[in-house]
Amino acid sequence: MRKKISIGAVRIGMYVDGFDTSWFKTPFLRHHFEIKSQDQLDKIKESGVSHIFIDTEKGLDVLSGERTVRKPVQDVAPGVKAPEPEAVANEAKAPEQPATKYPPPQNKSFSDYIKVKDDLLQIDKLSLVEGTVVVFGLYTKNGMDIVPLILNRNKKGEPVVTKELLNSPGELMIERCDVNKYRDYLKMVMKDSGAANAMSSKNMMIKENAKILVQDLFNTPGDPEKMDACKGTVESVISSIIDTKGLITNLFTVNKHDYYVYTHSVNVSVFSVATAIAMGIQSEGELFAIGLGSLLHDIGMSTIPPEVLHKPVERLTEFELGLLKGHVYEGHDIVKLYKGIPPETLIPLMEHHENLMGTGYPMGLKGGKLHLAGRIISITNIYDTLTTSRPGFKAISPYDALTYLNSQANLYDADILKEFITVLGKSSQ
Ligand SMILES: [Fe+2]
Q1: How far is CA 417 from the centre of its chain?
Q2: In angstroms, what is the span from residue 356 Cα to ligand 1's centroid?
Q3: Is residue 209 within 8 Å of 233, Cβ to Cβ?
Q4: Residue 222 lies in a domain
Q5: Rounded to the nearest whole angstrom, what is the distance from the C-alpha of residue 301 to the centroid of ligand 1?
Q6: Domain assignment of residue 135, yes or no
Q7: C-alpha distances in angstroms, 94 versus 51, 90, 154, 164?
């Protein structure tokens, strides 16, 4: 059972299940762990928080000194509908998130924030269904503020998705250790969705699983098993777009408050495949190479030190900028080592920063030297980049991004751009 206790009652053997404040205001990089040492206990008590949350099924309780013997929440089949509000027992109701009682004891650095951000996975709020039980921890992220989310509970004490949660500002994140639980949740939602919603649930599942996979791949770039899984993902994306006659609703992330390479990679892959199909490309091999090359186009970013990767571009030194631009060749080398994909896959990867004028990188290809796949991804990549905020850059609206691209006829292929705009227009209706 999740329990809120005062800081004075905390002791070794308890399992911390969240702090009563933003992650950023505590000295800990994780908010879910067992207190195993006096040192950890001291740090918690000195952190300035007045209360913490503990999980009495994973660690000691306040009074008994024993773990609660109870069927773990994780074992409860997800998908249980929430009872009517009046049936929810008062003690099971989640407390309000109180204000921090003490000032933050220390300021965390940007690199600490990046570590935590990379240890979480951004999930699509639309993947959650009101009334369903969630068996994974959720965080909200507003800028650099990452806060554990306290969910309302049903009469069984299970945390449920509420309308307030779905309408809350900011993004939703889960810990990477919870991705399997999230995957199971997506399967359950898809199973329970009616025929009318079957396709959008399926698309949501493809997209969210693709993000998990790409995030995973970035931690072990080139892993053959994960590369194989990427192939399966691209095949699913292609089938879905063909089946829906070009509709990509739920296959890409719309509201992007921050830059995540996995979200960007999936978006670019979906945009590129859909644009290629809209242009009349029917060859499975061609579509596959465009889709997979687009999904892996930034895999070389996995070799860039996080402090360079997340630094605002205008603050990068000449050396760091060179390092960053090197992600294209790094990606090429990673993908080339894997023998299970056609060489055409490397084209969108190598050409995603090129443009018709020859002012792109790394090769400065000009006009007809750019392959079709390169001309497609040079548009989809820049579009997704412009519509995503990141340190030092505030996203512009889809309309403004497309207006900008339209004004750059010397850089981007006007016919391809027209098809891309049609694809986006169709999916936003
Ligand atoms: Fe790139």
Answers
A1: 27
A2: 17
A3: yes
A4: yes
A5: 7
A6: no
A7: 14, 9, 10, 13
Number of domains in the chain: 1
- Does residue 362 have a cis peptide bond before it, meaning omega lies within 30 degrees of 0? yes
Distance 207 CA to ligand 1 centre (A): 20
What's the gap in Å between 127 CA and the centre of ligand 1? 27
Specify the pLDDT at position 95. Answer: 32
For the question of whether the overall pTM of this predicted structure is more than 0.85, the answer is: no
Q: Express each pLDDT in 348-397 by its tens digit.
A: 999 999 999 999 999 999 999 999 999 999 999 999 999 998 877 889 99
Rounded Cα distance, 83 and 154, in Å: 6
Domain assignment of residue 7, yes or no: no
Per-residue model confidence (pLDDT) at position 63: 53
Range of the domain at 203: 193-429
For residue 88, is it within any domain?
A: no
Going from the Cα of 335 to the center of ligand 1, the distance in angstroms, rounded, reads: 14
Tell me, in angstroms, the distance from the centre of ligand 1 to residue 141's CA. Answer: 25
Q: What's the pLDDT at 50?
A: 67
> Which CATH number belongs to the domain containing residue 231 in this structure?
1.10.3210.10
Listed in sequence order, the residues at least 6 apart from 176 whose beta carbon sits closer than 8 Å to its beta carbon are 119, 120, 121, 215
